[in-house]
Amino acid sequence: MGRVAYGSAGLLALALLTACSWGGVADKAGTMAVKAPDASVAVLPLDKSANVPTDQTVVVAAQSGTLRSVTVRSKAGQLRGALSADRTRWRSTTTARPGTTYTVTSVAANPQGKQTRHTSTFSTAKAVKTFDIERITPNKDDTGLTVGVGMPIMITFDQPITDRVAIERNLVVRTSKPVEGAWHWFDDRHLDFRPREYWPARTDVRVEASLAGVHAGKGMYGKRDLDLDFRIGRSQITKGSTNEHVLHVRRDGKKIRDMPMSAGQGGQWKYYTTSGIHLAMSREPVTIMVSPGIGPGSAGYYRLTVYNTVRISNSGEYVHSAPWSVGSQGNSNVSHGCVNVSPANAAWFIKNTLIGDPIIITGSPRKLEPTNGWGHWQESWKEWLKWSSLKAGPTLALSS
């Protein structure tokens, strides 16, 4: 009802302003000289409006003239906006903060240059609670800001989100090369973005999360804005089959290394290496590996210190150095699910891998689940879009 009331009042105000007409006055010679009426301004929300939704667009319209300046300011900061090409209308492009009073100040001028100043105020609805981005990946500390072509953008919120559309509308991805992509909700706190295909190599990416004041649930509003810049590095894709027992590494389309491997021995489901499009999730010089679901003193228990590991799932799978299985690498599968390579190959692989590089394993009956680590590419594009509120679209251009 609030938005309808603002709109109706605004139309009435604009209609009254439009009804103004020019008059004439006689000069000393008795000749009628046309005098332009003073410019006037209509503002939405109306002056002294209260409990205005934070996503209500502020509109300033000039009649019988053009706008010279518009500011919408509060103690929390200033709203950005855009002026129409004919300079008769200004619209806000950012979201207001909850529980905040804004002052709208505008200056309009008639065709003869006479200026009119207009000031009004409005107050936004108060927040019961706020939400924030708890974590965004990639980031400087965990992944570095140069990542592989498979890297998703992953956002974790600190509160459950109910208005998913409002969130997606206020998330912008800009790229230096054209990309089609979409956001995908895994649950009410986890929202991820991936392109339809792998990112183009050497693409600059910016994420603009303009969430301050965004309504995301009953009485809940965004706490702050956040921007993130990162870069897609060279294209490196590693492929291997549990039947062939070799990892083939290609960089920018050219094969640069073959590494004999040994994959999961099977027998039990947990001892199969998962088939699918994995992503490099971390690079760990030293990893302590403990047998899953088996305690000390039980048959099959192990606790190993392993070197030069690249994690590829959340179910304990790595590409790592395994000097004990070098004799089996290239001819048979003897591991408990990891991809074993020689110490020399493991040292080379960890040094030459970016977080987000695709590592594709085939041949195993056990499939990588989309939620097992970063299994985002396990979903087809059609499946990915099922969990997107606004569906697919092109990224915006990233200016230099």
Folded structure, characterized:
- This protein is mostly beta strands.
- The protein is built from four helices and 33 strands.
- It has helices at residues 2-18, 164-169, 343-352, 381-385; strands spanning 23-26, 32-35, 40-44, 49-52, 59-63, 66-74, 77-78, 81-83, 89-92, 101-109, 115-124, 129-131, 133-137, 146-147, 153-157, 171-175, 180-187, 190-195, 204-209, 215-217, 220-222, 226-232, 236-241, 246-251, 254-260, 276-279, 282-290, 303-311, 318-321, 339-341, 358-362, 393-394, 396-397.
- The model is unreliable at 1-26 (pLDDT under 50).
What secondary-structure arrangement, pairings included, does this model have?
Layout: H1 2-18, E1 23-26, E2 32-35, E3 40-44, E4 49-52, E5 59-63, E6 66-74, E7 77-78, E8 81-83, E9 89-92, E10 101-109, E11 115-124, E12 129-131, E13 133-137, E14 146-147, E15 153-157, H2 164-169, E16 171-175, E17 180-187, E18 190-195, E19 204-209, E20 215-217, E21 220-222, E22 226-232, E23 236-241, E24 246-251, E25 254-260, E26 276-279, E27 282-290, E28 303-311, E29 318-321, E30 339-341, H3 343-352, E31 358-362, H4 381-385, E32 393-394, E33 396-397
Parallel strand pairs: 4-11, 12-21, 14-22, 16-33, 23-31, 29-30
Antiparallel strand pairs: 1-2, 3-5, 5-9, 6-7, 6-10, 8-9, 10-11, 13-15, 15-18, 16-19, 17-18, 17-32, 19-22, 20-21, 23-24, 24-25, 26-31, 27-28, 28-29
